[in-house]
Amino acid sequence: MSTTSETEAHGPVDFALLEFPRDRLTGEAGQALMDLVEAGTIRLFDLLVISKDADGGVEVLELTDPGGPAAGFSYFAGARSGLLGDEDVQEASAAMDPDTVAALLVYENTWAAPFVAAARRSGGELIASARIPATDIMAAVESLEAAS
Asked: Which InterPro entries match (predicted)?
């Protein structure tokens, strides 16, 4: 039986596409992401900021442009593992509304690595996983609160 140390175990890797109205870019989301990375909660593999203009034109923005719409994520300039490619940008932009900016992220949930290592040492194996949308959880909580 092989042993797996916590340094060999990894947390689940997810992607997220966060869309922002172009006129509401404050940089707050970039700061919150930096806080998660610095706390070790997640490890960022990739971050692309995509702009979709009113006519549907798409552009991947430079994170280092100090006055640009991606400036709130400038801390992550160079966060490129190669996991995201042109096809991912096309799929992300197809999901975006016109005149928006979106952050496309690939990240590891590093907080889960100790749990994954412990499960592996005990012979545990992930056999199913699903993401429940936050809106579904909020609706269920509101329904429970209304019933009580």
From this structure: DUF6325 (IPR046288)
Radius of gyration from C-alpha coordinates of the chain: 18
Q: Which domain holds residue 31?
A: 13-147
Tokens of 33: 């992401």
Query: At residue 23, does pLDDT exceed 50?
Result: yes
Task: Let me know if residue 1 belongs to a domain.
Answer: no
Per residue in 35-73, pLDDT (tens digit) is 999 999 999 999 999 999 999 999 999 888 888 888 888
The count of structural domains within the chain is: 1
In a domain, 96, yes or no: yes
